[in-house]
Amino acid sequence: MTTATSSDRVNALRAQIQGKIEALVQEFAEGQISREQFHVIYDRYSSQLALADMAAQSMAPGTILDTVNGGESTIAVKEQHMGKAIGMSIYRRVGSTLLETLGSFEVAQEQVRRIVSDFKGWGSDYETRQIGPHQWLLIRTGRASTVVTLFHNEPSQMQVNVIARLHGDFERANAAFFKGDSVDAGKLAYPFLTFIQQTIRGQGSAGR
Prior knowledge:
The chain is an alpha+beta fold. It has helices at residues 3-29, 35-57, 61-69, 74-80, 109-118, 157-173, 192-207; strands at residues 84-92, 97-103, 126-132, 135-141, 145-152. Helices cover 52% and strands 18% of the residues.
């Protein structure tokens, strides 16, 4: 391999990585990925750029370039850190009464009630909160109800937007039931079911 060829490879690799960084920044700006995914993948690309710089100064650049190209795929890294909705608890805003739990919601209800009671919004109708390793809660309040979604990994803005849409559909579909003093949870329609079930099915497929 000539020096010119090595230099060309390094320059091409640097341009490729820079392009990936630009695409990553755009993905985050559009809400397609979470902050956690952004940080992990950005760090990965930064490390690759550092290796490319090392290759430019090295007497054996080919070995370093092979290290960059031979690592775990970014798609796999992104998937590993993707937010996955595991379960959801739905409360009536009046009295914070639990109406229904969907999916697998392995968080103590007393802990969730405290979080729901403490949620003030501060100009927003939702909040994301990390409660444990890879455990995130998305709390969203509407006119009549509050939904708390348990995610494995931090949810992206797109996933927050999906929950917001489903929550709006839930409140509109069940508006008549929320007018009474009590709500029969067994009579309510739950647009969230499809979202939770699709996530669970997706996790099952990924594990096979």
